[in-house]
């Protein structure tokens, strides 16, 4: 029974039913995500013994030389690290097959058919050119390594007590590592072979249709109707990848997410979406599954490697930015929709689309509000991933570009892929710092969603409706897929630590280069692309217009991101160079 309490009405809590475990979308996202992760475990974990033996051989070869100084990371330390990184359990037969099966359309320049088909005659000269570039990069790296060896020996001759020689050695080693990063990229480009991907894409689309269709059938939807519509959605996803993999588009960072949303919007606002496609437009179903897969990538032990400085930048700055931006949106900009305000705050301050989806689910934002937030994120991410590295190169002192620049980009650029691309532009160390900061920040997806659910159910909706709710309503409002995200993170963090306890680097070989990159990441990109296509197909410009009156969402995003840029840079500098300089010295 409802009862009066301080001028409001207390609504009866909803009752939990076990059938929700197989009838609700959030739970099916968890089951499907963990099904793929379980397949990865079955395929890779039995090879742990072989991986351990290879890692022990690499450690034996370099360990003694790698630890002879604590002034900087010696050349042998990096050589040992490189040897360990080459040990990847996903390199087995099953992993190679999965990588081939899940491939997106290939890179192309002027002929889009090359994205799907390449003859041996066309592949041969491309491979020859790539090999020539690789050999050139390798020669440059070898020259840089020789200089680094000479500088390190000079520092060693002074027993590593001459700070000037130590700095020269450190700089020479950093130059060699950047050359090594380029060589690695050029080596990847030599993996060119003739291919015909059309059959594989048809098989992949069929597999996804069955994969998601099982959940749809269990939730009481028509499997046949879903599969028919899914064919259209998947084809649009293929076209989005095709456009994103065009050479110029890749150069400017215009990724598949922008194309998927853009093409979907073009269809929905011109010819219209056919009625038979509608059953397969399941934005949250797809992206929630992808976020569960993302959880396996968030490994606690890797987070701790960068130390308290990185954790402080990600976990203190982000909530401050969220709260200040939300207040700014309500009090200064006067956003008419608190839900849109909250979704933009999470999108901008945490990690882009993933956080926006979780927040939109927690506060019951409309799909148009989610689309608007995601669209803003896509535009500014593309701009920032190009502009920020250029600004850092042109403005930052040379000795601050890698660590400070990496931390700044990792804490402010929305998408994880864009962060990695921007970091790689500056160098290997910047890539490492930026990607790690972003990974730490991703943990907040669930935390933000939880507090947003509490705030909107206990404050916002009480003011709107006069009803107060109990704990069970908050539980029902909380996006359950976040539990899958957190469970995957916890489980695979434990596995990562367990393997590393046997031999250093084994966690990376088994989890990072196994279940994550050899299973979760292969399919997560496709799942996200399906979600972005669905967002575009479900978006009507006329419906969006009312949310863009006065340009308030744009003003909110620009002001919030500006505050984020300033605060992240300031806190990164304080943490890495004042409070924890020892962390900076050892990265």
Judged by helices, strands and strand pairing, the structural class is mainly alpha
What is the CA-based Rg, rounded?
25 Å
Number of strands: 5
Strand order of the largest sheet: 1-2-5
End-to-end C-alpha gap: 60 Å
- The average pLDDT is 88
Major sheet summary line: 3 strands, mixed
Per DSSP, what share of the residues sits in E-state strands of 2 or more residues? under 5%
* Low-pLDDT segments, ≥5 res: 1-12
* Helix amount: over 70%
The rough form would be described as globular
Number of separate helices: 28
Write the layout of secondary structure elements.
Layout: E1 3-5, E2 8-10, H1 20-23, H2 25-44, H3 48-66, H4 75-85, H5 93-101, E3 117-118, H6 120-157, H7 163-189, E4 195-196, H8 198-218, H9 223-244, H10 247-251, H11 256-268, H12 283-295, H13 300-305, H14 307-315, H15 317-333, H16 338-351, H17 353-363, H18 367-395, H19 403-412, H20 416-426, H21 428-442, H22 444-465, E5 467-468, H23 471-477, H24 481-502, H25 506-537, H26 541-545, H27 552-579, H28 581-586
Helix pairs in contact: 2-8, 2-12, 2-24, 2-25, 3-4, 5-25, 6-7, 8-9, 9-11, 9-25, 11-25, 12-24, 12-25, 14-21, 14-27, 15-16, 15-27, 16-17, 16-18, 16-22, 16-27, 17-18, 17-22, 18-20, 19-20, 19-21, 19-27, 20-21, 24-25
Written description of the protein model:
This protein is mainly α and 587 residues long. The protein has a domain at 9-23 and 288-531 and 540-586. The chain has helices at residues 20-23, 25-44, 48-66, 75-85, 93-101, 120-157, 163-189, 198-218, 223-244, 247-251, 256-268, 283-295, 300-305, 307-315, 317-333, 338-351, 353-363, 367-395, 403-412, 416-426, 428-442, 444-465, 471-477, 481-502, 506-537, 541-545, 552-579, 581-586; strands at residues 3-5, 8-10, 117-118, 195-196, 467-468. A hairpin with a 2-residue loop joins strand 1 (3-5) and strand 2 (8-10). 45% of the residues are buried. Mean pLDDT is 88; it is low at 1-12.
